[in-house]
Amino acid sequence: MNWISNVVRPKLNSFLNRREVPENLWVKCPETGQMVFHKDLEANLFVIPGSGFHMRMDPMSRLRSIFDGGKWFDVALPQVAADPLKFRDEKRYTDRLKDARAKTGAQDAVKVGYGKLEGLPVTIAVQDFGFMGGSLGMAAGDAVVTGLETAVSRGTPFIMFACGGGMRMQEGILSLMQMPRTTCAVQELREAKLPYIVVLTNPTTGGITASYAMLGDVQIAEPGALICFAGPRVIEQTIREKLPEGFQRAEYLLDHGMVDMVVHRHDMRATLARLCRLLTRAPQPVRETIEPAGEVPALPAAAPPAPASA
Question: Which of 3, 110, 213, 225 is spaced 20 to 30 Å from 145 by Cα?
Answer without folding.
Answer: 225
